[in-house]
Amino acid sequence: MNRRLAQALTAVFLSLAGAGAQASIAVISFVTPGTSGIWEGTLGFRFIAQRDLSVTSLGLYDEGQNGLAVEHAVGIFNNAGVLIANATVPAVSAPGGLFVYQTITPINLISGQTYTIAAEMKGSDPYKGSDKYNYAPSGFLADGAINFIGSVESPLTTLAALGSAFTPFLTTGQKGYFGPNFRYESATAVPEPGVLMLAGLGLAGFAVCRRSWRTRGVPG
After folding, report:
1. Which residues of 25-36 are buried (b: 16+ CB within 10 A; e: fewer)?
2. Proportion of the chain in helix, strand, coil states, percent, rounded to 5
3. Higher pLDDT, 168 or 146
4. Does pTM top 0.85 for this prediction?
């Protein structure tokens, strides 16, 4: 009897301790792709973090949903134009979905701060083909974790070239060039104090009951 109760309480504790955690969420999505095009330079979008976020992966639009033709660098710049996160999104064969992602060491974005995500787009490659951006998709949705300001474009071809002189053209509106995307988790995705308190009280109660059973000689 004690063993079964202990297993049940352990399961409850683990469930409660995991409360507040969440899977990585893509910050933008759309239902149907719009117009596709080729760009030699950098494309992306500017946004304001609506709460503290932990960016876990950077991605790039995959027109055919069958893998990228070539690898692409994707990065996030702060409002001063400093590159604070970057990754090389690989050419993979069959990722599934509208974006291919590369996991990064998590980087925190601060609530209320403005950021820009940009990707190195490459013109037609005679050997490998090209990866296209998407413009004006239908059913566009920006996750509530950000305030989408607008899309950006620059003729500069590398993230390193942008650097602190990052001065992209800004196209306002919510249907821009994609381009890059990122996935995030809440930077505060930890158990709530009240949840931990309840879990602790449950374990404490189990300990008291167990001592009581032992005193009365109840079999373990």
Report:
1. bbbbbbeebeee
2. 20, 40, 40
3. 146
4. no
Residue 62 contacts by C-beta under 8 Å, 6 or more apart in sequence? 68, 95, 97, 98, 99, 100, 131
Q: What is the mean pLDDT of the chain?
A: 77
Cβ atoms within 10 Å of 188's Cβ, excluding its own: 11
How far, in Å, CA of 86 to CA of 107, rounded?
A: 10
pLDDT for 17: 44
Neighbours of 151 (CB within 10 A): 24
> CA separation (Å) from 72 to 20, 57, 96?
33, 14, 17
Q: How far is CA 184 from CA 57, 63, 83, 149, in A?
A: 7, 22, 17, 18
Instruction: Please report the sign of the dihedral spanned by the C-alpha atoms of residue 205, residue 206, residue 210, residue 216.
Output: positive
Residue 107 has φ and ψ, to the nearest 5°, of -125, 135
C-alpha–C-alpha distance, residues 25 and 23, integer Å: 6
Contacts of residue 124, Cβ cutoff 8 Å, sequence gap at least 6 = 38, 130
- Please name the residue that has the structure tokens 């060491």: 105
Strands 41-49 and 146-154 come out as: antiparallel
SS3 104: strand
Q: Which residues contact 176 (CB under 8 A, 6 or more apart)?
A: 45, 135, 136, 150, 151, 152
CB-based contact 73:86 (threshold 8 Å): yes
